[in-house]
Amino acid sequence: MRSRNSVFCYEGYSFVVFKEVYKPAEDTLLLARNLVVRRGECVLDMGTGCGILAVVTAEMAARVVAVDINPYAVVCTKKNADLNGLRPKIEVLLGDLFSPLDSSRKFDLILFNSPYLPVEEDEGGSWIEKAWAGGETGRKIIDRFIEEVPEHISQEGRILLVQSNLSNVRTTLDFLDQSKLQAAVVDKEKLNFEEIVLIEAKKQPEGACT
Ligand SMILES: C[S@@+](CC[C@H](N)C(=O)[O-])C[C@H]1O[C@@H](n2cnc3c(N)ncnc32)[C@H](O)[C@@H]1O
Description:
By secondary structure, the protein is of the alpha/beta class. The chain has one domain (6-203): Rossmann fold (3-Layer(aba) Sandwich). Helix content is 22%, strand content 30%. The chain contains 5 helices and 9 strands; from the N terminus they run E-E-H-E-H-E-H-E-E-H-E-H-E-E. It has helices spanning 26-32, 52-58, 71-83, 140-148, 169-178; strands spanning 6-10, 13-17, 42-46, 63-68, 90-94, 107-113, 153-164, 181-190, 195-203. The protein has a 7-stranded mixed beta sheet, sandwiched between helices. The protein has a two-stranded antiparallel sheet with strand order 1-2. Strand 6, helix 4 (140-148) and strand 7 (153-164) form a beta-alpha-beta unit. The longest helix is centred in the middle third of the chain and has 13 residues, at 71-83. S-adenosylmethionine (SAM) binds at residues 22, 24, 28, 47-49, 52-53, 67-70, 73, 96-97, 113, 115, 130-132, 141.
C-alpha cells in the first residue's frame, strides 16, 4: 500500500487518491481514451476506485452509478465527484459487483477495469489488493461479472471491460458469447510483463444466429 494519499490529473479533472485506493494506471487510461458517451446515457462504473471513469463520463451522461467493494473507494469517489462539480450526477454505492443494484436497473454503458491478475491463494485480502487480485486464474471477478452483467445492460447498451492476457482473453470472449453478447478486442497495450486489452461487448441483435 502507498504510504500517502496522492493526486492524479486527467483531461482537466483532478483526483485525490486515498492510499487504500487504486491509483489510475495504464489500464485506467486504456479505458478512458476509448470512452464514447452519448448525451443522456446512463452509465455504470463498476469497481470505480477513485471515481475517475465515473467523473469523466458524468459530463455527458444523464446519470452515473459508481460501485466499489472498497469502502475507502466509495468515500474517495464521493470526494472526487464533489471536487469536480459532478456530485449531483454520480450515485456512489458500496457493494460486491451488482449486489447493490436492483435487477430492474439497466445501463447504456457499463465500464469495468477489473481485478484481473492471477495471484497466490493468500493474496487479495487487503482493500488495495482487491484492486488487482483475480484469484489463482485471474478470472475470479471477471467470470462473476460476465454472469451477472446481461441483466443490467439496456437493449442498445455496451460494455467496456479491461483485462490482461495473463487471465485468458479467449475465455472472456467465449463466456460473453455464451451470455449472448457480441464481443471483440477493440484496443490493447503492451506493458513489461503482460498485454492489457480492452473488450467491447454488445447485446446480439434479436434473432441473430449464434
Ligand atoms: C483495477 S481497479 C480500477 C479502479 C478504477 N476504475 C480505475 O480504472 O482506475 C479495480 C477496482 O475494482 C474494485 N473491486 C474489486 N472487486 C470488486 C467487487 N467484487 N465488486 C465491486 N468492486 C470491486 C476494487 O476495489 C478496485 O477499486
